[in-house]
Amino acid sequence: MAAYGLYSHIQSNKRRSVALLIGLFFLVYVLVFAGALLAEALTVNAPLDYLVQAALYDLIKAFPFATVGTIIWILIAYKFHQSMIDAVTGGHEVTRAEEPRLYNLLENLCISRGITMPKLKIADDEALNAFATGLNEKQYSITVTRGLINALDDAELEAVLGHELTHIRNGDVRMLVIAVVIAGVISFFGEMVFRLFFQNAYYGGFRRGGGDGDRRGGAGLAIIIAFLLVAVAWALSIVIRFALSRKREYLADAGSVELTKNPDAMISALRKIEGRGELAAANSAVMEMCVDNPREGFADLFATHPSVDSRVEALVKFAGGHDPGPLVLAPAQEPGQLPPPPSGGPWGSGEKNEAQGKPFLPEQPPVDPGEGGGPWGPRRSG
Fold first, then answer.
1. Range of the structural domain that residue 67 is part of
2. Among the options 40, 156, 158, 164, which is catalytic?
3. How confident is the model at residue 379 (pLDDT cuts 50, 70, 90)?
4. How many CB atoms neighbour CB 243 within 10 A?
5. 67: buried, middle or exposed (CB in 10 Å: 19+, 13-18, 0-12)?
6. pLDDT, tens digit (0-9, with 9 covering 90-100), for 317-332
7. Residue 313 catalytic?
8. pTM
């Protein structure tokens, strides 16, 4: 089950990252062609084969601009993706002085394995979750929610940090960020195509010359094909995101256990996080990076994470952990609630013990009635 630094998984992630970038450019060109076909169909009344040839010619002319635009998009995402994620989640970097408990746990894990320590960030959210982001060692960071810090003990927090460190080490974080970039590009170009269609429709710019028969036989079919291409490109971008193997979560859990030597801590952390990880302000792309993503598609087909039950079962089977079952957090640990104030001072509440009918503090030994006892009063027997 120990999978930390698994060479084959790292190499697989590198190949997938390259494939994702290639797929990104392919889908962009498909969308450009669809937009060109739609534009030709809305402005020229001609047979379908003519419209397709004209759209291909437009694609060739637009090819360098689409390529440069996509590269610029990637560079912007490379430079500013962390800032955008922080803006969505409210994450901010903290120092050892600000969060000594969490900082020391992360630092000790990194020192034990000679890992470059990522930036540590806190999101002031009462949800129980954490995620890692970045594309290189200078950008890598781990963000932990305030709710998670309050709900988990040190061993459980260490397990979660080990989980995120494994994602960084195995290349999962880089691959997920690239997938998010792809989704952003496809959404952007897809929206442009739809805007082009509806603006032309609104202003009446459908075509010049020709009759209705040609319009139905050529332009109408071309419009349908263009919309189908846009739909297919959008669907493929979604499939690419969700096709990233959910095995990465099992491997990250295993990597955490290999780092901490404590499968029970990882299991109890997952049980506490279970059903409590929803980041309301985060979009689906950010939730895919989290320890647990409670958002699921229909019939679990598009779920980006395996269920907590499946992950715990794997840890019990392969790492020798013990499953306590679903956990109900104490009221003080539920998101959005503060711990109850202490009562009675450091020596207890001072209330009587109902079972014995005696005060909480033990009774003093009886006083010896004899004389003497020194300057501090009579001596006590016993």
1. 1-341
2. 164
3. low
4. 12
5. middle
6. 999 999 999 988 876 5
7. no
8. 0.72
